[in-house]
Design brief:
The chain is α+β, with helices and mostly antiparallel strands. The chain has one domain. Helices cover 35% and strands 28% of the residues. It is built from 2 helices and 3 strands; from the N terminus they run ββαβα. A 3-stranded antiparallel beta sheet has the order 2-1-3. Strand 1 and strand 2 form a beta hairpin. It starts with 5 loop residues before the first strand and ends in a 13-residue tail after the last helix.
Length: 80
């Protein structure tokens, strides 16, 4: 069995942000808890914005890192 890392991602209005890192099983359990809490808070909130949307996802770390890797500028000018 190969052990690999995953991110628990919070996607708010289309923008993703890693919340935690761990095994897929650990993060799936956290995801379920967060979704339940989000559902309860939405039902209790009096001023829920209709355009506000938060979803959670579990993504392989390598996949997220490749897609969201910051690009480093490279100076190709010849140094004297």
């Amino acid at each position: 069995m190969e052990w690999s890392l995953y991110y628990l991602i919070m996607i708010r209005n289309g923008f993703g942000e890693p919340l935690s890192i761990g095994t897929k099983e650990e993060l799936e359990a956290k995801k379920i808890k967060l979704e339940k809490l989000a559902g309860l808070s939405n039902q209790e909130a009096k001023e829920v914005q209709p355009w506000e949307r938060v979803i959670y996802d579990v993504v392989p770390k390598w996949e997220w890192d490749i897609e969201h890797c910051p690009l480093m500028p490279v100076d190709l000018a010849e140094k004297s």
